[in-house]
Amino acid sequence: MSILLDLRQAVIHKVHNQDEEELRSMIEGSVDGPEAALPGLGVMFEMMWKDMNASQQNSLVSSLHDHLKTVTPGKLQE
Q1: Is residue 3 scored above 70 in pLDDT?
Q2: Count of CA atoms in the C-beta half-sphere (13 A) of 73
Q3: Among 65, 7, 66, 16, which residue's Cα sits nearest to residue 40?
């Protein structure tokens, strides 16, 4: 019998019992890592976003907005 998990549940299952250092290592290994890691970071971001109050969300959006002003997007592959 096979068990199917959706992406969110698969990520949560993978990191559920990790300690803080293991979580940090997973995040640092994913940042600037292979694109396959991006969905996992998205799930982690979603979990944090849901736990933030409106002020924290506004602060995060403002920080992201400010950061985006400092980067130049690369060319898209055609």
Answers
A1: no
A2: 4
A3: 7
> What are the Cα distances from residue 50, in Å, to 9, 31, 36?
16, 21, 23
pLDDT value of residue 5? 66
3-34 exposure pattern, b = at least 16 Cβ within 10 A, e = fewer:
eeeeeeeebeeeeeeeeeeeeeebeeebeeee
Contact present, 40 and 30 (Cβ < 8 Å): yes
**pLDDT tens profile 25-53:** 999 999 999 999 999 999 999 999 999 99
8 A C-beta contact, residue 30 and residue 23: no
Q: Sign of the C-alpha dihedral, residues 36, 48, 56, 30?
A: negative
